[in-house]
Amino acid sequence: MTPKNWSPTLPKVKSKADLVYEQLRGAIADGNLRPGQRVNMDELARAFEVSKIPVREAVKRLESEGLLVSRVHSGVTVAEVDLTEMRGVFLARETIEGLVARLAAENADAELLSNLEGVQLEMSTALGTGDLGTLPELNSRFHGLLAEATGYRILTELTEQLLLTVRRYRVVAPMDDLNWRSVLSEHETIITAMREGDVRATAAAAMAHTSSQARHEITEQAPGKEG
Quick check: pTM over 0.85? Predict the structure, then answer.
């Protein structure tokens, strides 16, 4: 059998290690596993009803992503997120979000706008009912839609990784109602510029959104900040 005879697509079958990885990554993103918390691999193997091998593989993968840390005497723990790291994250986000928004605006169609507006509606409803716990995931979905619209996998992956770090930080420095209202307003500015076909304004709105959140989260909302 030669390469020209191969099927262009292969069935996507998730291994046990993949499933454990996804569960652990989701728990870290949602704050169910908090920064600094120890991860017991024996307990995980029993909880997932798998051997230690897929758990070990998942943990190694999460270590390579900087989400878990393994030390000789303290075992495996969830990585901490500090202000220095967050400053770097927001600097990277501002540049990447501007690029993502510009490319998304160039490719924007009715479906993308409808999907973005749908997420906005869900976020507004959650905010109105005080369900702040669902907002981080919805916010990630909003930015994920923009990243996917660029057509570049690397931008989708970078966006996802940066947003995950932000979500982890918000576990120890939660956003309040007022800040989430700012997020919704800033999202709406992005959508409006995109709807009007103004590529530059869309990119500028996305960068301004990230800059605004950086000022709030690493200056005003910093853990341990007095005042």
Answer: no
CA distance 185 to 200: 18
Q: Within 10 A of 129 (CB to CB), how many other CB atoms are there?
A: 9
Kindly give, in sequence order, each residue whose CB lies less than 8 Å from that of residue 89, ignoring residues fewer than 6 positions away: 162, 165, 166, 169
pLDDT in tens, 27-44: 888 888 888 899 888 888
- Put residue 70 in one of left, alpha, beta given phi > 0 → left and psi -120 to 50 → alpha: beta
E strands, 50-92, in order = 68-71, 75-78
Q: Tell me the β-bridge partners of 75.
A: 71
Distance CA 11, CA 16 (A): 16
Instruction: For CA atoms 33, 38, 43, 45, give the dihedral sign.
Output: positive
Place of tokens 């193997």: 45
- How far, in Å, CA of 133 to CA of 9, rounded? 38
Q: For residues 34 and 74, is the Cβ–Cβ distance under 8 A?
A: no
Q: How do residues 63-119 score in pLDDT, each as one tens digit? A: 988 889 988 777 899 988 877 888 899 999 999 999 999 999 999 999 999 999 999
